[in-house]
Amino acid sequence: MQNILETPVLLLDERRMQHNIERMQNRMDKLGVSFRPHVKTSKCLEVARRQIAAGARGITVSTLKEAEEFFRAGVEDILYAVAIVPNKLDHALKLIRAGLRLTLLVESVAMAEQVARHGAEHGVCYEVLIEIDTDGHRSGVKPADPMLLDIAAALQGGARLKGVMTHAGASYDLNTPEALEAMAEQERSRCVAAAMLLRGAGHACDVVSVGSTPTALSARHLDGVTEVRAGVYVFFDMVMADVGVCTRDEIAISVLCTVIGHQPAQGWIITDGGWMAMSRDLGHQAHGYGVVCDADGQPLPDLGFGKANQEHGVLQWRGDAGVDIVQRFPVGSSLRVLPNHACATGAQHGQYHVIPQNGGDWPVWPRFSGW
Amino acid sequence: MQNILETPVLLLDERRMQHNIERMQNRMDKLGVSFRPHVKTSKCLEVARRQIAAGARGITVSTLKEAEEFFRAGVEDILYAVAIVPNKLDHALKLIRAGLRLTLLVESVAMAEQVARHGAEHGVCYEVLIEIDTDGHRSGVKPADPMLLDIAAALQGGARLKGVMTHAGASYDLNTPEALEAMAEQERSRCVAAAMLLRGAGHACDVVSVGSTPTALSARHLDGVTEVRAGVYVFFDMVMADVGVCTRDEIAISVLCTVIGHQPAQGWIITDGGWMAMSRDLGHQAHGYGVVCDADGQPLPDLGFGKANQEHGVLQWRGDAGVDIVQRFPVGSSLRVLPNHACATGAQHGQYHVIPQNGGDWPVWPRFSGW
Predict the structure, then answer these.
(1) Where does the record place the D-serine dehydratase-like domain (chains A, B) (predicted)?
(2) Strands B313-317 and B334-338, bridge-based pairing
């Protein structure tokens, strides 16, 4: 069946994806928060539709291109979760004027002032979250930093402070339930503290938005939080398996490739799935370019994937030296590879081939890219 | 000027590219060989047109999608330089029947037999090169391996042996003129030896095709070689600068990004150019995600680029600790980043923005992706 596909090709196991969607949504429902999935992982309307059908309220995007594509498809409430800069304001304005309820992010007084001025000049009032740094991982204002109040004060006229947002990206480097639960609590408590500081100074702060896949799946309670965001949970990947928030059997995407040759003396099986198909993302450096599986998706621990060129994957046989790898994995045979990082591997492909549930045709779901 | 572009965006310096094209073509002309550029680097018709206008004869591709796109645009002589497998033969057949002169690659008896059978069944005669392994780097048959003759013998009926091909990818790991010249000579001599073995056994072997950017720029002579292939030379990148075959001033593409925030305590300048814009390719691990430059492309050695998330680049200030990085690189200011690997960075983008030579508009050259 898979041999009729021209490889390499990105496979999607819809049943696993649906399980992942329901697992997260059920958790959010129980924790009593809204869920706003981050669609940067899939960049695919069919996937987002299923997240919304399961109960998501609005979506999160990493680019205005994503905002534009999903708005065109009917999603009307979108958070652009990267700090806005001047060269993107005209694009944001255009989307808002077309009817999108777009929320922007700032983390500096300078940008808060520019957003407010741009809004005032163009007769709109931008809805804005302030980014809070709860883990020292990347962007944002520290929760007790008095600059928070300066930013809030600058959001006047053409802008309105809607709330605070944080992303505990540091959770990707943890791998015990205890550490993850502690990070989830740190993310929650610090973001709530920032909201309290703002409210204490008289600012409205309706939204308290937190999230990353590991913390969303590890939080014990989310008191004071209004919404959670997560992206990669929809597909999962080896990084998430290493963190410990999914099993390999929950990973919903894989790259189907074909054996194109061998170097028996080196134990190499060469495939047409190189870094262009996998991405260069090495995750936690534990699985090379990904976990090699047979055509049905069962991991083959005897095959490593330590080397890749643009359209060549070089797999290393590390099993019994007596095995004839040319016979065992003949030219033309199929292998599947579980990705280190679903967002990065997905981005290398223009569509998902959805594994047919009862045989039959392969549905093809397009995904977009770029800015 | 650059501030009007919505970042991140891939910039192309056409003047530098034209210099690179002429440098390579002049060298090939002097060495007395045909030149068949590898278009996997640019995947852009405008770029390939300039390579052909400068004297290239035919092109090399890494996917049948590239073959299809360039054939549609009028290129009629294309070498698909990855070993063919059964699931791609129908696609190849379709292109040949549409009039493309497509050359295929094999490196096993099994595939030689399948190609010949497929051709016979469909009434075409595939033109085929045998891949030779001249550096132990990846694929191919060793030049003195008797299997060469078995493959040649299998190319009967629906297939015809056209010649031999090799790619000395190991040259990417060298960095002295002496080592590069030796590798170029090894690539040449071993590929020619394979051709001699085939000819000695009575097989026609018209084509002897070698190449990689480093060896093409380092070969002293190419006796016995009929054509050279190279790809990344058209743009160059930091890997090629590390190898020593270009200067930073010859690198023709860069990613324009915008400062979106800071973490002054850590010396971080955060931009909207993350790994989605740069790729995850770390090259020789010497420059992080790329070499940070000012908006005009002058390197800023005080800025490292060691960390990237999907849409965030985290630059590290490593200059004078007394500098106020918020003032020096304010939110909204532009930076450019030279890529580690032009093929990988280019693949993250849907178009090139060509730097206007005399001010004015930015020409936009589309590039395609996928399979």
Answers:
(1) 252-356
(2) unpaired
- The mean pLDDT of chain A is 97
Q: What is the Cα–Cα distance from A327 to A78, expressed in whole angstroms?
A: 52
Domain-wise residue ranges, chain B: 2-9+247-366, 15-236
Residue of B nearest to A61 (CA): B311
Query: How far lies A167's CA from each of A32, A131, A152, B152, B310, in Å?
Result: 19, 9, 19, 59, 13
**Gap between the Cα atoms of B240 and B234, Å rounded:** 11
CATH 3.20.20.10 fits A15-235, yes or no: yes
Beta bridge pairs of residue B127: B103, B160
Burial class of A200 by CB neighbour count within 10 A (0 to 12, 13 to 18, 19+): exposed
- β-pair partners for A112: none
Phi, psi of A164 (to 5 degrees): -125, 155
Selection from A239, A262, A361 nearest residue A314 by Cα: A262
Rounded to whole angstroms, how far apart are CA atoms A306 and A314? 7
- CA gap B171, B187 in Å, rounded: 10
Q: What stretches in chain B show pLDDT beneath 50? A: 1-2
Q: How does DSSP classify residue A223?
A: T
- Residues in chain A with pLDDT < 70? 1-3
On whether the B15-236 domain is CATH 3.20.20.10, my answer is yes
State the residue for tokens 């093929």. Answer: B343
Residue B362: what pLDDT? 94
Contact A7 B87 (CB under 8 A): yes
From the list B108, B272, B348, the residue facing A331 with the nearest CB is B108
ipTM beyond 0.95? yes
Per CATH, the architecture of A2-9+247-366 is what? Beta Barrel (2.40)
pLDDT for A360 equals: 86
To the nearest whole Å, the CA of B142 is away from the closest chain A CA by: 10
What whole-number distance in Å separates Cα of residue A47 and Cα of residue A370? 18
